[in-house]
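Title: Prediction job returns without error message
Component: structure pipeline
Severity: low
Priority: P3
Assignee: unassigned

Description:
Job completed but the reporter wants confirmation the result is attached to the right record. Sequence as submitted:
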Amino acid sequence: CAQTFWSNILPVRAGEVSYVHLVRSRRQASGVGGVASLVVAGILDLWWMLCIAVVLGVALRGMAANDPALATLTAAAGVGVVAIPVGGMVARRAPAGFAARLGAVPLVGGLFVRTADELRRQTWSRPLVTGLAFSGLALICRYAFQLYLLDTMFGGITWMQGLFALVFAGLVNLLPIQGIGNVGSIELPWTWALILVGVKHTDAAASGFALHGVVLAYAVATGLLSLALLRGDRPTEPNA
């Protein structure tokens, strides 16, 4: 809940910072370990989004206002679908000497090593497969809810067009370019993606701002819920 709130309100991946803080406060993992686990979880989400982008890119070719641009995006997503598991296998088999040299890099070396350790420990293991399944289920629930809202508010946008825009906006927002409240950094890629697959400019822009407003309201509600849960779950001091 806290990650959903902060990642939708503050810029530059602040949701991940709150996630690490919560992990450390519960003493479940170190700060670097929490970030490494989050990176692996983000890679799973990224792989699913790229797979969806490839399927939709092929299905929407006839509807695209700019077929070369759509073909380029589809090809790039296809490369990512293959590159992610290959990169995981490479990280798993990296020699110990390389990991030691990488760990000596200031600030980020330890994170790289811990992330490689997570990949090495989980690649094709039961935890990774389970995480991949939960990641796919979470994306299905999130996208289904947003597509329902989109269909309710704007009936002229098909579910394939809406899903393509959701995936493209999600991929763009993996970059550390969010504004406060994600205002603009959600609407711009969303609008561009819808225009690319044949939606009118006015409908594309209006649907982006309307849907983002609903998402922000949901993020505020979940943030307040997480605050209430955390306040009620504070450890009590033992009596003297």
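Comment from assignee: result matches the submitted record. Residues 2-232 form one domain.
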